[in-house]
Amino acid sequence: MKIFSHSFIVDSPIEKAWDFYTDLHHLQVITSKKLDLKITQSSSKKITLGQTASFSSKIITRITWNTKITFCQPYRYVDEMHNSLFKRWKHTHIFHKIDDSQTKIEDEIEFELQFGLIGRMFEWYALDSLKKIFAHRQQATIEALRNH
Fold it and tell me: How many structural domains are present in the chain?
């Protein structure tokens, strides 16, 4: 199992950052257009404990996956995903109040690729892809919260 971590600071009060991130459609705002993310099903528009959603996106080829929110309390939530690429995917989102106008956003992803040894050989590719995806998400989040 591998762990990917990413964090950044936004010029936004924690309540505003939390409201933005717990609206499921924030994913379409912060995800690169080249990944062509589509929300195909959701039990709720807001991220809440037990919420389920299905997505499709272009990674190498178009893949679909399902997520479930397994923990959700103010300023922290966890989504767990199941698909054909990942044997395990647990994404923890944490929001820290720095002061009245700034928030630190942290992401931690624990993952394991399918296919045993072959999957482990491609972990470097998955980590590199996550770095690129989250660099884009950081800039898109900063911009979205500036205009939100």
Answer: 1
CATH of residue 116's domain is 3.30.530.20
How many angstroms from the chain centroid is the CA of residue 138?
11
Give the tens place of pLDDT for each residue, 59-96.
Answer: 777 889 999 999 999 999 999 997 777 899 999 999 99
pTM: 0.93
Distance separating the N- and C-terminal Cα atoms of the chain: 36
Instruction: Supply the DSSP string of 7-51, one letter for each residue.
Output: EEEESS-HHHHHHHHTBTTHHHHHS-GGG--EEEEES-SB--TT-
What domain range includes position 9? Answer: 2-147
